[in-house]
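[Primary structure, fold]
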Amino acid sequence: MIPLLQPKFKLAIRVIPILLVIGSLKMAAHYYGLEFLSLNTIFTALISANIFLISFNISGVLADFKEGEKLPAEMASCIEAIADECAYIYKSKGAQAGRAGFIYCMDLTNQTLDWLYRKARTKTIMEKIAGFTDQFLAMEPYSQTSFLSRLKHEQSEARKTALRIHYIREIHFSEAAYAIAEIITFMLAAGMIFLSLDPYYESLFLTLFVSFILIYMLMLIRDLDDPFAYYDKKRSIEEVSLHSLETLKTRLANRCEEMDIIPPSADANIQ
């Protein structure tokens, strides 16, 4: 693959059209003699202040992004733990309640993946997790109290994980902090267009370089702010991996075949 076509360079490529506009305006300002600003300590201080604001923003979104990396795996762990208990009850007791619970776990895995791709609503996932209670009631005659207690704990953890994913995905980091960083970046880019610095080509290079760094970082922060933007492949670049949920889906399907259970998509009796 051509290096510049690799996914990690997509964001940099998106900045190029903006740089072309800034570069064109800079050349026009130089040609018509409109470079009336001079480089001074206040100007450089504004650049430093904007970098500080950008650092503040990126530290905020990175905290949620790092937490978001763990959440799909935690959800997969909760679902698989419940599926293990259901499979145990079905194999040891021959109880159809265990079979139904196992299929329910498969269906929840599928719906969770759909939810993360915005093909299902958060309300649907929360109702699905709450529906485990009926599955546990059906398995109660075939299980021990300690088993059911552990299942209820996993249900609670799955609900907590789903709510945290919803919060990270829907609630953005401080919009006011975004706004001030974006305003200062715009003003700095505009100021550098009218900045008089000799030689001219050095001035052009610094204008494009500083603008690229500031604009790139703002776009990166916006991208990191939603680590679950799988539904927007054209714009989103940095997302947390769904490998744990996808592999869980495969593992449950394989176990389903071993246990001679019909998968949810083909089971007419699934509720």
Q: What stands out?
A: The beta strands are 37-38, 195-196. DSSP finds nine helices and two strands in the chain. The chain has a mean pLDDT of 86.
